[in-house]
Design goal:
8 helices, mainly alpha, single chain
């Protein structure tokens, strides 16, 4: 199997296992056997067991296969990439501080009115991963690059949709109002400015700080 197909296969396995294990048919049975904590631990271990080889396969075969596009990384593209990564990391950190009610870890927790990062996007962690993938697609046009980085936005959209459908089916009275009040795609809701003001300053500081660290060490940690 070619490196590109291997990366695609691992992405399909990663996404498929996520959706099957968290489905309405499978998840309740596993929780009944493993308890909620045991299910979450097993779910996380399986995700890592697939994602780590996915990342390893890509790094062993970076910039391989057919080249579909080639863009020169000039000052504009570099600044653009840094800004988007800062946004993505800030969204990620804010989403960790304020988890989505649709996430597995939030199961059974009280649902408060949407605020903060939830007014930016109801699936912050997914959307942060999607932005990461999109911004890395721009300068990386080889087949293995596209297969790897393209998987992030695809998984973000599919994973978010799956979580929403599960919640709307199992908790329609509880989740519908939250669903209607929050956007999926970041910055497309009518209360974006309100949400930006409510995000903790710590999230902004950590997001910008993490971006600066990653930018400084990018070449030595990840190569070209």
């Amino acid at each position: 199997m070619s490196p590109t197909l291997s990366i695609v296969a691992l992405w399909l396995l990663f996404a498929g296992s996520h959706m099957v294990l968290s489905s309405m048919r499978v998840r309740p049975k596993l929780v009944g056997v493993l308890t909620p904590g045991g299910f979450l631990a097993g779910y996380s271990v399986l995700a890592l067991a697939i994602f780590i080889p996915l990342v390893g396969t890509y790094f062993d075969h970076k910039h391989q296969g057919a080249m579909l596009w080639s863009l020169r990384v000039g000052p504009f593209l570099e600044v653009f990439s840094i800004v988007v990564m800062a946004i993505a990391l800030t969204i990620l950190i804010a989403g960790i501080i304020q988890p989505s009610p649709a996430s597995i870890s939030a199961q059974g927790k009280s649902l408060e009115p949407a605020r903060g990062i939830q007014l930016i996007t109801r699936h912050a962690v997914f959307m942060a991963a999607g932005l990461f993938g999109l911004v890395h697609l721009v300068p990386n046009g080889f087949a293995t690059d596209i297969a790897f980085f393209g998987g992030f936005p695809l998984f973000a959209v599919v994973g978010s949709w799956h979580q929403d459908q599960r919640k709307l089916a199992t908790e329609p009275e509880r989740y519908s109002a939250f669903y209607e009040a929050t956007p999926l795609i970041p910055f497309t809701g009518s209360r974006t400015l309100e949400g930006l003001k409510q995000i903790p300053p710590l999230a902004y500081a950590l997001g910008i700080g993490a971006t600066a660290v990653l930018r400084y060490f990018h070449a030595s940690w990840f190569g070209g």
